[in-house]
Design brief:
This is TetR family transcriptional regulator. Keywords: DNA-binding. GO terms for molecular function: DNA binding. Helix 5 runs antiparallel to helix 7, helix 5 packs across helix 9 and helix 6 packs across helix 7. Helix content is 71%, strand content 0%. The protein has a domain of 129 residues: Tetracycline Repressor, domain 2 (Orthogonal Bundle), CATH 1.10.357. The protein is mainly alpha-helical and 191 residues long.
């Protein structure tokens, strides 16, 4: 039994119930170990909750950014890989964790701060992709915001409202969000 086992069990309780369901006694019974095992890894329940948020940040943000960055240098390909994330086989489980943490963050400061930090990291990464495509900073931020909205929205809607195939969504999203069709209209020149 290691720290990760406790964190993953607690995340599952968060998804299945809510944060109030995360109790040391309940987790110990679920894992088939004594409370002593918990205290070997964590001093308090609050420390476990912090470890859950750190695990979520690492697994669902930092590791994703790292693997996508390693996979290719073309910013359009990296953005396409981000658009494909909600349609991967394991994505529904990740979406449930994401939704549960965001719901928890609506009421409690610690997860609210973690959600804000994760959103900033993701948004900055997507903005950088648009900058790497040659867009000016302000336009890159606008497009990054829309791209992030598409990714987050697809993670919620995919499976219940499938209007596009797994392959079609990333390609269409890239065409839409990274095209000149979204460019701000030129101001008329005086003359």
């Amino acid at each position: 039994m290691n720290e990760k086992d406790w964190v993953e069990a607690a995340l599952q309780v968060l998804v299945d119930e809510n944060v109030r369901g995360i109790k040391i006694d309940t987790l110990s019974a679920k894992l088939g170990v004594t409370k002593g095992s918990f205290y070997w890894h964590f001093k308090t329940r609050s420390q476990l909750l912090g470890a859950m948020l750190a695990h979520w940040r690492k697994q669902m943000t930092l590791n994703v950014i790292r693997s996508i960055s390693i996979a290719g240098s073309d910013p359009r390909e990296r953005l396409s890989a981000l658009f494909a994330l909600p349609r991967r086989r394991n994505s529904p489980a990740f979406a449930r964790i994401e939704t549960s943490i965001r719901d928890w963050g609506r009421r409690v400061d610690m997860p609210r701060a973690a959600v804000g930090e994760v959103d900033e990291i993701r948004f900055d990464y997507i903005t950088k992709l648009f900058r790497d495509m040659g867009y000016p900073q302000a336009e890159a931020r606008r497009r990054a915001y829309l791209a992030y909205c598409l990714i987050m929205g697809d993670s919620v809607l995919h499976g219940s409202l499938d209007a596009m195939s797994r392959e079609e969504f990333p390609a269409y999203a890239i065409r839409l969000i990274a095209s000149d069709m979204c460019k701000k209209e030129q101001e008329p020149t005086e003359g």
